[in-house]
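FAQ: What does the model actually see?

It sees only this:
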Amino acid sequence: MEGQNCNCFNRKEGRDYRLEEVYRKSLVILPTLMAQSEKEAALAAIPVDGDAPTIFDKIVNKEIPSTIVYEDDKVLAFRDISPQGPTHILVIPKVRDGLTGLSKAEERHVEILGRLLYVAKLVAKQEKLDDGYRVVINDGKNGCQSVYHIHVHVIGGRQMNWPPG
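And it is asked to produce this:
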């Protein structure tokens, strides 16, 4: 095997430390590249008018496939197609009811907002994110919101960085 003569390969452990270093660096670089494309998507996003369906409405109606990890009568949770961590789940209300973003919340939305956060906790437990996770709600263009249907990101499976943005 090519690396056996290199100090980077440990024959006893069968490990190539060069590959491990590349992997560790990719955990830093890939999220940055993905975050850049998320920012571009958010800047290109157009807030929906009235009842125009969003991609999330189409996922709720099963018009677009998704990997659903949780569903009840009010909320749907599914894997993000552009994950920012080993685990990245979106939790959405099944009915938008004018709640396109957190800044649009009214007192009538209190129950569904609480339900979204509670389901975020259930999903994190189901995904075995026992060492912690991040819950994010992006709001508006500057908040990097790319779909105007309120949604909660549950991100985990790796050490999060601070500050986040």
